């Protein structure tokens, strides 16, 4: 079962007490997965389609309990690809359905409202319910173990713009793009996705997302620290190898006894402790020189070696 399915199954069990929220949620559901059925008697019906049984039950409950309409559920099975079940919640054409569509804001008189539902979204609770319905009808979210990505897919451009404005009203950095015949409203920030899950009431999914996210962030932090430590260790090893080679060249060309006492001491310490870090060499010097002083002496030895090579 995908993470998106887990989220939808949880959201399908969320119930609002206020009837205005039922209307907002059903309006978004219908805009995502609903179609109008027009009969020969100038009456309309409704068909809502989904592949999630829990979402179908939620749509059925909102239609029957909120509006008292007679409904039927038809289950079909695809013959190709994944052969998943499709659930069709149907309301037969009747004059009463026109009143339903008008209350949902889908019809304004005899004109279809393209997707500007701001009249339904005056209250914060209705805005949350509307986003929940949009996710139930056409949303998906990737598992937190991978890249963070949540999207709402619709074929209605005006509805997609309404979703973007609504998400931004909650401070979420929503963006929109097109994909073939559809419009995709998406979030790619982990904080934004967890905020949306909280807003629409998917609290169990939120906790699961955050748990994985914490482990993932901790693992990434440990990897960064290990990589940094490895890089520093490699730099230390490279510097030590370079210094030892320079000191050996100086010893072979002119002899270490020709060096000033401070450089001779540094050269002997490095030759005796070839894997030691700079701080460890300072400690071995028993406080006679600091870290910057030891570094200066080793650099001076490298410079002498370069000069000797240049003369030759």
How do the SSEs run, as a string of H and E?
HHEEHEEHEEHEEHEEHHHHH
Number of helices: 11
Number of strands: 10
Return the domain count.
2
> Mind describing the biggest β-sheet?
4 strands, antiparallel
Going by CATH, the homologous superfamily of the largest domain would be: Homing endonucleases
Shape: rod-shaped
Proportion of helical residues: 55-70%
Q: Ranges with pLDDT <50 over ≥5 residues?
A: none
Rg, Å, rounded: 35 Å
Strand content: 15-25%
What would you note in describing this structure?
By secondary structure, this protein is an alpha+beta fold. The chain folds into 2 domains: 3-201, Roll (Endonuclease I-creI), CATH 3.10.28; 217-311, no CATH class. 57% of the residues lie in helices and 16% in strands. It has 11 helices and 10 strands. It has helices spanning 3-11, 19-33, 53-67, 95-103, 124-138, 157-169, 190-200, 203-253, 261-272, 278-284, 291-311; strands at 34-38, 44-50, 72-77, 85-94, 107-108, 111-112, 139-141, 150-154, 175-179, 182-187. A 4-stranded antiparallel beta sheet has the order 1-2-4-3. A 4-stranded antiparallel beta sheet has the order 7-8-10-9. A hairpin with a 7-residue loop joins β3 and β4 (85-94). The longest helix has 51 residues, at 203-253. Keywords: Cell cycle, Cell division, DNA-binding. It comes from Anaeroselena agilis. This is Probable cell division protein WhiA.
């Amino acid at each position: 079962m995908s993470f998106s399915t887990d989220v939808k199954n949880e959201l399908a069990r969320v119930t609002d007490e206020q009837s205005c929220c039922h209307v907002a949620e059903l309006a978004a559901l219908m805009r995502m997965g609903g179609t109008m059925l027009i009969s020969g008697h100038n009456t309309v019906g409704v068909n809502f389609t989904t592949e999630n049984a829990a979402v179908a039950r939620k749509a059925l409950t909102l239609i029957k309990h909120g509006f008292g309409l007679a409904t039927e559920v038809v289950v079909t099975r695809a013959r190709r690809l994944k052969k998943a079940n499709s659930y069709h919640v149907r309301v037969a054409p009747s004059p009463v359905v026109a009143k339903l569509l008008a209350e949902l804001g889908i019809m304004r008189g005899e004109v279809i409202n393209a997707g500007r539902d701001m009249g339904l979204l005056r209250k914060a609770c209705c805005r949350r319910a509307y986003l929940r319905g949009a996710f139930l009808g056409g949303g998906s979210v990737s598992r937190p173990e991978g890249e963070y990505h949540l999207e709402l897919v619709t074929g209605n451009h005006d509805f997609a713009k309404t979703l973007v404005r609504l998400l931004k009203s909650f401070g979420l950095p929503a963006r929109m793009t097109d994909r073939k015949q559809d419009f995709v409203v998406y979030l790619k920030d982990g904080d934004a996705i967890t905020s949306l899950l909280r807003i629409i009431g998917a609290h169990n999914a939120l906790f699961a997302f955050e748990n994985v996210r914490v482990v993932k962030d901790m693992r990434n932090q440990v990897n960064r620290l290990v990589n940094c430590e490895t890089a520093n260790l490699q730099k230390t090893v490279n510097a030590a190898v370079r210094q030892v080679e320079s000191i050996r060249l100086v010893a072979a060309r002119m002899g270490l006894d020709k060096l000033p006492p401070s450089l001779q001491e540094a050269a002997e310490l490095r030759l005796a402790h070839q894997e030691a870090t700079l701080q460890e060499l300072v400690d071995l010097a028993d406080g006679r020189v600091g870290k910057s002083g030891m570094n200066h002496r080793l650099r001076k030895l490298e410079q002498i070696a370069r000069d000797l090579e240049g003369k030759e």
